[in-house]
Specification:
The protein is mainly α. The protein is 50% helix and 5% strand.
Length: 498
């Protein structure tokens, strides 16, 4: 036989339940007549339902624009705001952050937002209430920056520039217990990113404004933008006018010619060399560091342009990048000279100059392009490498000169044994090393050198093999541009076939 559960006993008035409790609470709070218990001031952690008109946006929010608002507004209009935002009393925020007080958009409003600006904008547009948790403690403990960055880690739709601005905001904050800004390690710990990621984000804010805008709009990947930020001037600076000119020129090459970032840097090197041979007055050379990250999206990927209208990017000034941003590996330094606005000589002007001098200048340019290409991790496709190797094998009389040139390139690039001074000894050591990657690179270098030595020979007319050589350099990661003299040779050969 089942025994029924006993009925719960009713609490007597004034014993923690019943109508007596509410009456006692009202009297204790001094609330009488029509005044309600909810007139009590809210406490930290309390969930509120607020009129969005009583909330001001936070000037510390680093969003440059609110994206995909049509979808958000439609969803909020239909179902309301489901995820609460965070608010503080505006007065408390302004007292704790006096440096931001003048930038509060609506200082007369009762509350100011922490995270939740898209939800707030949608609530304003639809007339819905805005659920929010009161967190005055974030302002009093000066931890709003951490809250904003922490939410960014899991928030979709932020551009790399917006994320960088949020981290930079955290970097500038004053330590809550000491009169100093946070150290780099403290920023890393509180941001929730790795040290390398924080360094890369902060490096984006030192790029020229046009490049930052391209990253924000989605036209340039963060990885490629960081690679451009490593370009330095002759003094090793990355924020000087000359360094910014190189970074901007690199982005323009990527945008206009659809080049990957490595090829754009190679083009900068070739343009600098071309300026030198044209007898112009270039600025001082700079070294090109090249980061090597093989996983994920290629470093030079240029994303499809976004259809969204982007707001201007205005990063905070005066931020210093820490040494962690300089950890990317760099191949042998290549001199790069900033391109001036002077036009290149036309083909008619080139014809008036000594043809052998023009041939020599073009050969010097191609020699640099070959070295730049060999410095790449992915220097050629297997088919392209095999063609050049087969050419040398079928023309053994070319091997000696080609091996000497290839040995010169590879030793300069620190590829293979450095203690072998003679080409024959060097390539014998490479063959005995068992390193398949090095052997393939060395074989490709010999084939490439054979083509280059042949094309550079004086007093000979070019043929189809020479044309194929310069066309390969032009379409490779070297991103070589034919000189007017080389274009003339290609045209002469083309006419001869007609």
């Amino acid at each position: 036989m089942t025994t029924p559960l006993p009925r719960p006993k009713r609490k007597k008035k004034g014993e923690g339940g019943g109508s007596g409790t509410l009456r006692a609470d009202r009297q204790k709070a001094g609330l009488t007549g029509s005044r309600d218990i909810h007139a009590l001031p809210p406490e930290d952690g309390e969930l509120l339902e607020l009129d969005p008109e009583t909330i001001s946006p936070n000037p510390m929010n680093m969003r440059l624009e609110l994206r995909d608002m049509d979808t958000m507004i439609a969803d909020v209009g239909e179902r309301g705001v489901h995820t609460p935002g965070i608010v503080m009393h505006t007065k408390v925020f302004m007292e704790c952050y006096p440096q931001w007080a003048s930038r509060v958009k609506y200082p007369e409003r009762t509350f100011i937002l922490g995270p939740g600006h898209r939800r707030h904008a949608a609530a304003l547009a639809t007339g819905r209430v805005m659920p929010a948790v009161l967190r005055d403690d974030l302002a009093r403990n000066r931890r709003i920056e951490e809250e904003l960055v922490s939410e960014n880690n899991s928030r979709a739709g932020l551009s790399p520039i917006e994320q960088a601005l949020a981290i930079d905001l955290l970097r500038q904050r004053v330590h809550e217990d000491e009169d100093r800004t946070l150290s780099f390690d403290e920023v890393v710990e509180r941001a929730g990113y790795t040290a390398g990621t924080v360094s890369k984000y902060l490096a984006l804010l030192k790029l020229p404004q046009e490049v930052q805008q391209a990253i924000h709009a989605g036209d340039l990947s963060m990885r490629a933008g960081y690679s451009l930020s490593l370009l330095k001037d002759t003094d090793g600076k990355k924020e000087s006018a000359n360094a910014h000119a190189l970074q901007l020129r690199g982005w323009q090459l990527m945008r206009d010619e659809k080049l990957p970032v490595e090829a754009a840097k190679n083009r900068l090197a070739l343009e600098g060399k071309q300026q030198f041979h044209a007898g112009k007055s270039p600025v001082a050379p700079v070294a090109v560091p090249e980061p090597r990250e093989e996983s994920g999206t290629p470093a030079g990927e240029v994303k499809a342009p976004s259809d969204q209208t982007s707001a201007p990017v205005t990063p905070p000034g005066g931020s210093d990048e820490t040494g962690q941003a300089d950890t990317a590996a760099a191949p042998a330094a290549v001199a790069v000279i900033k391109k001036t606005s002077e036009p290149e000589p036309a083909a008619s002007e080139a014809a008036a100059v000594d043809p052998e001098a023009l041939r020599k200048a073009a050969a010097d340019q191609r020699d640099l392009a070959c070295r730049l290409l060999l410095a790449e991790e992915r220097y050629a496709k297997a088919a392209e490498s095999n063609v050049r190797l087969a050419t040398v094998v079928l023309n053994p009389n070319e091997w000696k000169q080609a091996a000497a040139k290839a040995h010169e390139w590879l030793v300069e690039l620190k590829k293979g044994p450095s203690n072998k001074k003679r080409p024959t000894d060097y390539f014998a050591a490479v063959a005995a090393s068992g390193d398949s990657g090095l052997m393939q690179r060395a074989a490709f270098a010999i084939g490439l050198a054979a083509d280059e030595v042949r094309a550079a020979q004086p007093d000979r007319a070019w043929d189809a093999r020479d044309v194929a050589h310069v066309q390969f350099l032009a379409t490779s990661r070297a991103s070589y541009q034919l000189s007017p003299w080389e274009q003339q040779q290609v045209e002469l050969l083309s006419r001869g076939k007609q």
